[in-house]
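re: ur question from yesterday

yeah so i grabbed the chain u mentioned. its 937 aa long if i counted rite. heres the sequnce exactly as i have it in my notes:
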Amino acid sequence: MTVNTLPGLVGRHRECAALDDLLVGLRKGGSRVWVIRGEAGIGKSVLLEYVTAQASRVTVTRARGIEADMELPYASLHQLCAPFLAEVEALPGPQRDALRVAFGMAAGDPPDRFLVGLAVLTLLTRASETRPVLLVVDDAQWLDQVSLQTLEFVARRLLAEAVAMVFAVRDPEGQAALAGLPEIRIGGLDAAAGGELLEAAVSGRLEKRVRDRFVAEMHGNPLALLEFSRGRSAAELAYGLTSSSPIVQGTVSSRVERDFARRLAALPAPTRTLLLIAAAEPIGDARLLVRAADALEITPNGAPAKAAGLIEFGESVRFRHPLVRSAVYQQAEPEERRAVHRALSAATDPVLDPDRRAWHAAQAADGPDEEVAAGLEQAAGRARQRGGMAAEAVLLERAAEVTPDAWARGRRALAAAEAHLSAASPDRATELATRAELCPLSPLDQARLARLRARILFARRRSDEAAPLLLDAAAQFAAAGLPLARETYLEAISATVFAGRVHGPTGARAAAIAARGSGAPSSGSKAADLLLDGVATLLADGYETGVPALRRALEPLAHEDLGTREATMRWLLLAPVALEAFIHHAWDLHAWDTLATRAVRLARDIGALGALPPALIYLSGVHIHTGNFAEGARMIEEADAIAAATGHAPHQYATLVLAGWRGDADAAAGIIEDAKASAALRGEVSLLGVTGCIQGVLFNGLGRYDQALTAARSGIEHDGFNFTGLSLVEHIEAATRCGELDEARTSLARLVELTRAADSGWARGAAARSQALLTGDDVKADRLYRTAIDEFGRGRVAVEVARTHLLYGEWLRRARRRSLAREHLRTAHEMFDGMGANAFAERARRELLASGERVRVRETEPASALTPQEAQIATLAAGGMTNPQIGAELFISPHTVEWHLRKVYTKLGISSRRALPGALAIAPAANTRDEGTAPSG
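ran it thru and got these structure tokens back, copy pasting raw so excuse formatting
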């Protein structure tokens, strides 16, 4: 049993028990995370002291966020990782390089922050192999943004490592920080605990009535109880408080801050100046404090402040509470603050810490100063090289504020706006864009501003309002002869593809026509240029010339050498529009597979975790269409796990596609409603195509043809770039079953036009099967069904091969050719059953029963079945990859890999990875049972 030896820690038995449990689990090798939330002064820091004091036989590393206007990228993360930096060189190459650049230990391309997160996860895992590791972070809401994001990523990826993390977050300022992680929310002490704390702090005995009233007035806030009772006797507390007293007015934190300010006013002037230096310099460097004090010609005597309980001096300087720092800085006059920042700038080493020196110089400026602005701009460049987008944005914003020349001020404000958008702060980006607009801008910067406004608009609402702005920017780039023109035209078309309509003044076709007539110079990438040419031709001229033009882009898209991270990121940005074009207009599963596979590989290679989930989603679609639902599900699971770890929403539409093919109406229903609401709210027309098409698949599989007909209609009427062709296929099947033959024939004419130019196995199969559904000629229908099976097979579209066997078998049974019907229905049932396409399998089963066939039905999956992630890890391990290699591939730690492998060994009944290849090859399939026959009909 642990014993509480910390003063002031009363009434927190539940919280201490949770932290004790964390330490017990940590010492056993388990990962734990707690986020302690509460208002200022509620006792979060004391709980951190408690868990640190109890952490025997554990390596503890700590950091504290400091409220400051300046951000130094990765500063807090560097502080936490300092004890383990000797292990950096042992990390896998990409992780090592990313971490070294982030920490300023080496030069290089700006690292992906999630690759930095993986490096930190691996570093902590290595450290925990000799001793458990506990990370303790106070005031996490004030960490530099990229450190907080990285730590959140690590916290979400912990599973089987002897690593624990405990954060303290102040509410309400930090409500959004670390959201979704396990939390301990603490409130004020109850009357008994608050009274106990107050009795220990006050000289003399307090009446219970007075004590309870004081605790209630302070809302049980421990800091308020201790600070307001400091130096007061029981009699003063009994008779000295009235409803008009400052200490019972306002929020608890404002009362405490006013009390600190009262004590501050009683200090000698030199001591107040010393405290102001400490408040203005959040790093807490005592030697820097002394140098700045010398520059201001004051004696660094902090004894009075220490005696007043405001600050602690040592190798580092630490205020008693962040509210003290706030009170000190806010009480000072503007000129006093500028003088202190001027002294700090002069005292900061220009070689070792140029960024902080530039920041203090800017804070000291009482007007425009180009030298200061240039220093901040250079600091922003260094922040960008380290991957600190938020820090870059803040530094550029301040640089713009102190820039005297209007042209330079506009350029810097625009750069700050772009950086804010990259740091996911669209509101701040909008404000800086407005400031830039008020300044004179060059034609190039005007085009950049137009593109920026379009990107902000698209980020907020995926409507077609962004396209005209992007087209205007592209035209300006083209007029200036800049390579950015073609990239921006492609971006404009992409915006209309995913958000707008094909036709109309703001549609994709209008954007394509503008791009073709622009005369824009080459972008420098053959793949990007040919893709723009292909998509623009497709939209402007139609399928006959557009699809061949699009196919010319496939080879460079698949093999173009990408020499830099920047080039790779540009490729990953254009991949979605390329994939949409090849899937929905070229009907090319091979191109889909090739490009999606490359996208996943590139994103893994450079650690671009923002680009990896959508790449995995596209590749999951390949596996779904080739009939490997399990692999598709695994990729969706991995994409969603990474999205959750990086703070993004899960990819529900991929889940919808899988649910549609599985025939899971319940899983699909909620996603469909969310999609419809999003389409209405954000103007995202493409969602209507997705939901219409997939509902068509779902309801056709379930045999609810009237619902399939309604859904597919919405898929073909949305006038989008994608899903129209696939929706036509669903509409034709549903319409023929519902007797709406005129509708079906109209859709067939459109489908034939769409697929003729594609001339792929997938396209030819779709056209042939749809024609078979509508022809009244039995000989022709028979030939068309067989053709469709062959063509879908050539295109590797296994789900459509199975569907065609089903439709052909249904047709044959109704033509009373039962023997041949059973052959095709049996093939369809076996294929669907093996895939897990349950609705279609059930439809095939019913047809087989009606034909007199005995059917074997799949039992529930055995408990020993591997999960998608277990199967992936087992496959990689069986292929010879080591645990660190698998961890780097999947963005998890080697310990997590080993944890999963132990579960795999148990399920497969083996004891080592040497047995994996054989065990995976003979892993038992799901059991089956016989289903009785039904009379033939």
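noticed a couple things. The chain has a mean pLDDT of 85. also DSSP finds 47 helices and nine strands in the chain.
anyway ttyl
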